Structure to design on (575 residues):
């Protein structure tokens, strides 16, 4: 038994409360090393000594390239739980507790692993509507100038001694007038890149957080947009850029003018005086860009200012949440304060952090509900587009990705294939549209919130920034790809198991290219099959269910032999 591979971490993704009556416990072991794993648990303040202990057989829920992962669910009346594990490999039986490994369980309850108290305040409160979300991500400059059309023309507006720029002519009015197109795709949430007054076309150098950029439109138009989209059942999320501001932001302008005597000198991070607005910089900035000075979010005045920004747009326009830019370069207390302020105004507002790496410390329930899941995009690019990893490696990476967080948190991760910051997924695809279709299908079936970047459904390509932010091709729409997106978005939103179900690998056939997994809730079990190979494949559906329903066609599959065409996926409901 490889004890060096065994791992459990209390109060983490290995031990978390799904709700006040449900505690999930996980254990990691070496791959293919353990035959049986047991969980022993009891009331940590039990009046008996030794305490009463309940024994549960743990289920192996996933594997990656090195480890197996086991899970057990405690549904009991205990609010304070202590527990330990029993491991069997066919030859030996070893106990594992907070005190270490032993052949006999002699240590006291205080030396077991502990879940001190299942407190409702400590359980992440992710908005209920998040699990039903399918997001459409819009870069405003590139989407539409009017209904289903974009001018593609640059704009330059001078106003109050400021200059505002637009590259492609996109506007809020264009998004509003194109609402039917967005609604017909079937999405129920729109995420907009920054729309506040800024000097660049991308608007990540904000100069006024309380004004709509003149190139995009007016506050009244935005209010109308939110109202109209809400009437269509579509929520709106805005992009909040609070790590840094633009050079034209009032506080930075005051510092440039008054230097160390400015009342805003402490609004900026590690700033030296006199300020040199040139390279090399003597103040912190986003990625060394002098026009984007870094804000000091540890300053209480800055905290209050951005709490006001965050709540004002919710109260004034009714938006449904925020995607927070460069979230991992801002101090944690800022996000805790920001979350409290926003949730006091709108208890079900969603907060999504832009963090490219694993995000455990931001997803403990006191900061963000979700983060941008770049790991998902990397895995999909390697497997579906570049074909640089095997089917087994793909499955192992996906399982490890899902298990890095408590399941309710993984269900809320923002999954995507591409964004405004990276090349279009289609540009990586060696087999073009075929590869993209497989990746989109998997995204709609996988754990996490699917997010579609505008124009992916129109086969937009691009490797450089001007290319992957190119105008929406309204005049040359791909109706076949549109229909493909609509079909699987509709199915995603119809089935609870796809929105909040567990993920369990069912089949990995390297030779044929068949990959299958279950998505399951207590009331529903779906089997998802993808034929990633280059020819049709015959598969045998598992015999443990009497009948399967093909949810795409509505046809019952009484015969267990099913043909899956090459490069396609199917979903079956076990009934």
């Amino acid at each position: 038994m490889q004890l060096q591979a065994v791992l459990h971490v209390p109060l983490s993704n290995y031990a978390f409360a799904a709700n006040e009556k449900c505690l999930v416990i996980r254990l990691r072991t070496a791959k293919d090393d353990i035959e049986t794993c047991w969980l022993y648990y009891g009331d940590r303040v039990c009046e008996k000594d030794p305490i009463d202990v309940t024994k549960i057989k743990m289920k192996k829920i996933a594997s990656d390239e090195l480890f197996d992962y086991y899970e057990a669910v405690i549904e009991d009346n205990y609010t304070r739980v202590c527990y330990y594990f029993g491991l069997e490999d066919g030859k030996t039986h070893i106990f594992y507790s907070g005190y270490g490994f032993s052949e006999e369980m002699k240590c006291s309850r205080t030396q077991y692993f502990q879940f001190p108290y299942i407190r409702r305040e400590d359980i992440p409160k992710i908005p209920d509507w998040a699990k039903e979300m399918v997001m459409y991500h819009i870069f405003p400059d590139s989407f539409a100038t009017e209904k289903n059309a974009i001018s593609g023309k640059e704009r330059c507006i001078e106003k109050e001694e400021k200059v505002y720029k637009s590259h492609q002519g996109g506007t809020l009015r264009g998004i509003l007038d194109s609402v039917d197109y967005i609604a017909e795709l079937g999405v129920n949430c729109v995420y907009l890149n920054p729309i506040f007054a800024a000097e660049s076309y991308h608007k990540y150098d904000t100069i006024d957080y309380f004004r709509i950029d003149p190139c995009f439109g007016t506050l009244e138009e935005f209010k109308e947009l939110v109202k109209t989209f809400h009437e269509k059942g579509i929520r709106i999320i805005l992009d909040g850029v609070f790590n840094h501001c633009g050079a034209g932001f009032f506080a930075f302008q005051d510092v440039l003018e008054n230097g160390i005597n400015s009342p805003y000198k402490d609004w900026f991070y590690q700033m030296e005086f006199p300020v040199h607005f040139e390279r090399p910089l003597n103040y912190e900035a986003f990625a060394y860009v002098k026009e984007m000075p870094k804000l000091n979010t540890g300053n209480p005045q800055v905290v209050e200012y951005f709490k006001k920004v965050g709540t004002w747009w919710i109260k004034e326009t009714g938006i449904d949440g925020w995607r927070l830019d460069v979230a991992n370069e801002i101090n944690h207390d800022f996000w805790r304060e920001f979350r409290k302020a926003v949730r006091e105004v709108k208890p079900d507002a969603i907060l999504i952090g832009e963090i490219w790496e694993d995000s455990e410390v931001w997803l403990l329930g006191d900061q963000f509900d979700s983060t941008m899941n770049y790991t998902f995009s990397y895995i999909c690019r390697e497997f579906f587009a570049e074909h640089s990893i095997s089917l087994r490696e793909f499955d192992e990476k996906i399982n490890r990705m899902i298990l890095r967080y408590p399941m309710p948190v993984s269900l809320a991760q923002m999954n995507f294939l591409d964004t405004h910051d990276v090349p279009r997924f289609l540009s990586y695809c060696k087999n073009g549209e075929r590869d993209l279709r497989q990746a989109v299908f998997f995204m709609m079936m996988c754990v996490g919130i699917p997010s579609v970047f505008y124009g992916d459904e129109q086969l937009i390509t691009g490797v450089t920034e001007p290319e992957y932010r190119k105008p929406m091709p309204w005049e040359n729409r791909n109706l076949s790809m549109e229909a493909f997106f609509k079909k699987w978005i509709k199915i995603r939103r119809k089935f609870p198991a796809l929105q909040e179900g567990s993920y369990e690998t069912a089949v990995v056939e390297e030779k044929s290219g068949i990959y299958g997994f279950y998505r399951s809730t207590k009331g529903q079990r779906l089997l998802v099959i993808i034929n990633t190979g280059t020819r049709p494949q015959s598969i045998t559906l598992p015999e443990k269910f009497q009948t399967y329903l093909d949810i795409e066609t509505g046809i019952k599959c009484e015969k267990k032999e099913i043909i899956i065409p090459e490069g396609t996926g199917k979903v079956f409901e076990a009934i």
The CA atoms of residues 120 and 151 lie 52 Å apart. The two ends are 40 Å apart (CA to CA). The longest strand covers residues 22-30.
